[in-house]
Amino acid sequence: MFLKSPKSISLTRESSTAPQWNNQAIFRLVWPLVIEQLLALAMGAADTVMVSSVGEFAVSGVHVVDSINNLLVIAFMALATGGAVVVSQYIGRSDTKSAHLASKQLIYAVTAVSVLIMVISMLFRRSIIWLLYGTLEDTVMEAASLYFLITALSYPFLAVYNANAALFRAAGNSKVPMKIALLVNILNIGGNAFFIFGLHIGVAGAAFSTLISRLIAAVITCTLLMRTNDMLSLSGILKIKFVPAMIRKILNVGIPSGIESSMFMIGKLLTQKIFTTFGTAAIAGNAIASVINSFSFMPGNAYGIALLTLVGQSVGLGDYAAARKNTIKIMKVSYLTVFIMSSFTLIFMEPLIGMFNLSAQAHNFTKTFLSVHCISMIIGWSMSFVLPNALRASGDARYVMVVAAISMWTVRVSLSYLLSYTFKVGPLGVWIAMGSDFISRGTCYYIRWVKGAWQKKKVVD
After folding, report:
1. Domain extents for the chain?
2. How far apart are CA 439 and CA 338, in angstroms?
3. What DSSP designation does 131 have?
């Protein structure tokens, strides 16, 4: 389903002086984002493989903490999104002074939030692990606690790096974050090899490698932004001065995005528990299906990030025609990409699953899960996860949050339990509910976009 242009709204200003985003410029923005998403997946896989040499208790401990980390870091990831929207709109209207001010306020905000989360995580790490996972074996708990303690120290550096990367993207420069992501991968893998295989300090080594790579990424991006006087600059950031009005603008986008992401992660954890009640084969099938389909998400995630820049800059200038045009371009490319990747998965499903040593029952579960998922991906994933970034970039983040919350709890979570247990569909019910969630929330976003209500929203004055 491709998008139609929404109804025009007389309150908006169409301008021929909007940022020029032709097809070549959009391609230059998008391809580094795709590579960056691939690098993120590669780093996670490398960590797991290298830590596995320590033992199953180490893999389990790291997996437990990584799941918690993903939930905790949502706060400053959301702030980075809010900052990117605000800064991109100022860049769109060529307001250099406000863009510089918003950039610095974003760094102050993410630093404060991440330091608070760091302290809480370090002090209450065992309680947090127990609350989410219950009683663990002593060796797993010790590994998880140590890994949690050290990686928590990296939260401020990760927060600052994510914010800086978002600022670069807001200005249309996606190559710098991609290059830094490549450097982080090299440092992380090299660090793992040195600490785990060289010094033989196991889980602590993996954590130290993560800490060091994130520290270096934060320092490099801060240095680059402090040395520039372009539309983006952190010059004078050490002269700390909070501007509440600017922070509120960032929070107006960041808080709804954070709440939405948090609920998504919580809902995902609740539905994952269903597989444990259907045996090891169901758990393994779900795990392998998730690994395979994660590559289908990768380009789409990049397209969504690109929309924050494309729509944000156009809306900042008041050129909603450009915002509509670029959104349609990105959505067409997203649908085509998802169709190709999902079709590839369906055609080559047997050899893909065959790469993993699964039992016959787990193999069949994986095939069934992926079949349902690929079909639902083609129909609704782009509308559900790419299009909402166009709404966020215009300042319509609260609508996105409300729709996501309602769809998550009434469709994905509730329907998962109804289908799995009440209607005896079994673990397949979770994947059917997931696909239904794609379609339900995506439909709401599509209607919102077509009607043009997002064009009445305002982030910057």
Report:
1. 22-242, 245-461
2. 14
3. H
